[in-house]
Fold this sequence. Notes:
Layout: H1 31-40, H2 48-56, E1 107-113, E2 121-124, E3 140-141, E4 151-153
Parallel strand pairs: 1-4
Antiparallel strand pairs: 1-2, 2-3
Amino acid sequence: MCTSRPNVPKDKHWKEEEWNQPEHPVVGVSYYEAEAFARWAGKKLPTEHQWERAARGIDGREYPWEGGFDKEKCNTAESGIGKTTRVTRYPNGISPVGCYDISGNVWEWTQSFYDESEGGRVLRGGSWFDDRNFARCAYRGGNPVYRSFNVGFRCVRTLK
């Protein structure tokens, strides 16, 4: 859980119509804002392990779908769209556990630390701005105050 939050300036993308479209992921949020929203909603950000399991399934896929990269299954730079898309736009890119858009569209915050220094949080999934290498299920990056037009999040909940 976040106990302190550095001074993070207000993001300019929140008010821009280009990035605030129905059924598109929220962008421009730092780890701290994503974590606060998840807590407010009674959910959590996934751990890196949970995110990767949801993306790869149990058979260790390189991408969430079977086979190699396919630009028709995710929104990466190869799609040529140049911005976020509706989350359900790529039904053939669904992960083995039913997650839409887990590769491409936007980077997703996880609650896991990047390394033992606990100075950064892990981002997973790649984005519309990045090429297919960043959309691989195994790729990771992170910095907790990073905000951009290609960074968002997803929440997890516990099944009862």
